[in-house]
Amino acid sequence: MEWTEVSVSVPVEKIDMAGDIAQMVVPYGIYVEDYSMLEDEVQEIAHIDLIDEDLLRKDRTKGIVHIYISPEDNPVEAVAFLQERYTENHIPFTISLTSCEEQDWLNNWKQYFHPIEVGEKLLIRPTWRDNYDPKNRVVINLDPGLAFGTGTHETTRLCLTALEKYVRPDSTILDVGCGSGILSVAGILLGAKNAVGVDIDEMAVKTARENAELNHVSDRFTALHGNLTDKVSGKYDIVLANIVADAIIMLSKDIRNFMNEKSVYIMSGIIDTRVNEVLDNIGENFVVQEKFLENGWCCLVATTK
To answer: What CATH number matches the domain at 113-304, 3.30.457.10, 3.40.50.150, 3.30.2130.10, 2.60.40.10?
Structure first.
């Protein structure tokens, strides 16, 4: 089986942010093409003026982020994640895929997605896996479709680990950037009273509703199509934000308006190199109670001051 190359073209001034977001998709690195400073960089590194004509003809206004998806992973999920995060951060983009036929990568990844134990209480079961041992864990039946959130990525696992620690039988949950709905569904299955999920991607909203039905919790789950909290009302005991650092910083400016006095704010999707930046931006309104770390990713649990 072949790998899938995902190529994302963005304005060159957005290439660093686009690269940070792309780094969330794969654990083994990305490749970035940026020719905006070609002459200066060649002179600095090689101390020559002679540059290949093909390089000189490259578009200096665009940068390209290359991501390579292994056969065991889901390219559809990766693309959906990138589309959502780039749109969220106002990054113009075009995405192309090469290396294998669509009918292959739409389904082949499923053979590698097995039931996953998360934290102390949860087990994520792909809907196409019937032979599994729940091991007395709470089972989340999941079909991620085109939405981000299978539970295989560190950001989602960290968020689930934190969630199971703080959810209570009477908890109400707000899940910002809900993707497949995995966090909302998990919260309800762990005993929460109800959950509201919101996502900028209409396909994600549809998938989240379907996963709530699969787990027989649709009567306690509401999915909204919107950007961050623009369609949200009310106050919640737990706020989940498994998004990216920039979106978390933006969200944190007014998320207190949707929190009770003793609410918990769980933030994930933060690359370790940007943790301090997030802490600096939320420090005025929040006190961090816990940090969960895994493979260069950070999840923060905070309460209001």
So the answer is: 3.40.50.150
